[in-house]
């Protein structure tokens, strides 16, 4: 007989009161951080000793929780990225909200693996997916799944598109079942995750046709149709068109209605990458142009961008729920469902995507939508768009600045210009402006290159931004630019 040890080990705190107090302290510190964020520098360079501290071997022995938290505060908390700050405009990154964060804490505390079984999180997840359909005006019979983000949402949709192509049984037999190469269409402005997805699902880079764009960076439909016809003539198999609602560079919107019509005409799957901008549907100004999204076969969009929910969460919606399930459903012996008890309840979410274990990411969306309501989110999204337009107007009124793309949704691209500077010198000037804005802790735009022009890029999915931040940004760009 093995002897029982004197004391069973556990990872629960040795001193519950101390841990509880520490937890309260963490919440207090977070609230102080959020409440004072406007007055703090947006970004600080990470000192060498901090980088060194974060490059150590695995600790063999534990230490006091309070000490661990202290180390976090000094070395991690203090050097945050800054996307919680009102003047963070780099890439396309959301701010999060206090309620969203607290919901994540609760979700993590409950810690249900939200894939299978009869428990509340499954119903919250289903509720949130249904709300996502309502937000996007998708039919209630459509299906959907919450995933980690836009990239995952896009590959999930494209996998369904691929597996449900024709009568080829690609899921069983692989791509060799198709009589010829499948071809996917998107524009040169499409996000890189679409190409990666095409590579991963076996199409390969060569079968991604990147169609040209007009001066507004929107896909040229005539060119799309010509390319489809040419591919058909060459015996290839066009299978999907990807339209983008809000390109990552300039917020451009592909002509959704035309893409839908071309897709229907040639019997192709119409997918919309709305990771950033599908939610612009909630702004009356864009509702009409984005109407055709509702007819798409699939839609990917992020909630950690324009629903301001903390990272990570995105959503895939699929019009034909059967095709969705047929693409992923599989029931190994260890995942049998029953009609009663813990393994009863709703269809396993694993039947709708690749990931098995899933956190309770639905809760932060559920609590946020409950807290603010759809109408408030519509106002917030419209507010970001108006702020971007206001910035565009300020740029147009400022002789030292020029717009480098039309303002679309909440993205404003511009640069400083000076008489007599070459394209290379303008690039150096604007890069210096960008770096100093960040290094001085003032604001964080990012950059891109549009038609060969290095450009400052302000993408605003920030729930803390005010109009006055746009005035400040223009003032600071001109000040720094004049001092370079
Ligand atoms: C952000 C973005 C993606 C990728 O989404 P992640 O959530 O970062 O994975 C894809 N497409 C577009 C248009 C995006 O803006």
TrEMBL record:
Please give the organism: Algoriphagus taiwanensis
Q: State if Signal is listed as a keyword.
A: no
Q: Does the keyword Transferase apply?
A: yes
Gene Ontology MF annotations: transaminase activity
Quote the InterPro entries the UniProt record gives.
Aromatic_deC, PyrdxlP-dep_de-COase, PyrdxlP-dep_Trfase, PyrdxlP-dep_Trfase_major
Q: Into which family does the record put it? A: Belongs to the group II decarboxylase family.
Q: Name one Pfam family in it.
A: Pyridoxal_deC
Keywords associated with the record: Aminotransferase, Decarboxylase, Lyase, Pyridoxal phosphate, Transferase
Give the protein's recorded name. Aspartate aminotransferase family protein
For activity, the cofactor(s) needed are: pyridoxal 5'-phosphate
